[in-house]
Amino acid sequence: MSDWTLLCDFDGTISVEDTTDTLLERFGKPGWEKLEDDWKAGRIGSRECMAGQVALLDMSRTELDKHLTERAIDPGFAAFVAWAKEHRMPIEILSDGLDYAIHFILKHYDFDYLSVTANRLEEVAEREWRLGFPNASPMCRAKSGTCKCTAAARAQGPQGRVLMVGDGASDYCVAEAADFVFAKGKLVDHCRAKKIPHAPIKDFAEALALLPALVSGKLVGAARATAVPLPKVVSA
């Protein structure tokens, strides 16, 4: 087995669109945009933002499932997963999004066997929803629903190395501790500003093209001297 574990964000990375945003735009009651603005301005954390927004979703499970059926994933993801499986590189999905949506979409594309860590979408009534946070941490600097650094620490042992594939703010913290980053979107600027070893990518086709160089050591050395240590995993 390879000493690399591949950690992939979902929304905007594996999925073409941010799934939660598409749900809010279609089914969100007034007020979700204000929460989004407060989060972007730093007045609230993503956990508080997401909890408030999910509570404003007005949809049935049937409507939810139909909407999710229409969501697309990166067309290069299948080949990326196949290469990783062939070279025995575990893939885990770390997301600050909705677990039900992620599992549904992955199953639709026959990737339901992949490990997923995300926030828990819970049905309260026929058209009412709430968000649970089984992967939250009081130590999370980003105040996220899913603390990706804590989750990533499980994959990074004394001999293990972590590649993070992501695109946005929920990936900033874990990118600083990962051994290497394949970065899209806003994550590219963050990696540049923090001098994090990374490669900018547009899609999973470009990510796949870089995997042989990652495994051979051409992209990153044996260790990251400047990496921020991942937090220790504390059993509940």
Characterize the structure shown.
- Helix 5 (77-86) runs parallel beside helix 10 (204-216).
- This protein has a seven-stranded mixed β-sheet, sandwiched between helices.
- The protein is globular and about 50 Å long.
- Mean pLDDT is 90; it is low at 222-236.
- It is an alpha/beta fold and 236 residues long.
- A hairpin with a 2-residue loop joins strand 3 and strand 4 (128-132).
- It folds into two domains: 4-16 and 73-120 and 132-216, HAD superfamily/HAD-like (Rossmann fold, 3-Layer(aba) Sandwich), CATH 3.40.50.1000; 20-69, no CATH class.
- The chain has helices at 19-27, 32-40, 46-54, 61-69, 77-86, 99-108, 148-153, 172-177, 186-194, 204-216; strands at 4-8, 91-98, 115-125, 128-132, 161-166, 180-183, 198-200.
Summarize the structure.
With 236 residues, this protein is an alpha/beta fold.
Rg measurement, Å: 17 Å
- The CATH fourth-level homologous superfamily of the largest domain: HAD superfamily/HAD-like
Mean pLDDT: 90
Shape annotation: globular
Number of helical stretches of at least 4 residues: 10
Reported for the largest beta sheet, the result is: 7 strands, mixed
Spatial strand arrangement across the major sheet: 4-3-2-1-5-6-7
Helicity range: 25-40%
CATH topology type of the largest domain? Rossmann fold
Number of strands: 7
| CATH class designation of the largest domain | Alpha Beta
What structural class do the secondary elements suggest? alpha/beta
Strand proportion, as a percent range, falls in 15-25%
Number of separate structural domains: 2
Poorly predicted ranges = 222-236
- The CATH architecture category of the largest domain equals 3-Layer(aba) Sandwich
The CA-CA distance between the termini, in Å, is: 29 Å
In sequence order, what are the helices and strands, one letter per element? EHHHHHEHEEHEHEHEH
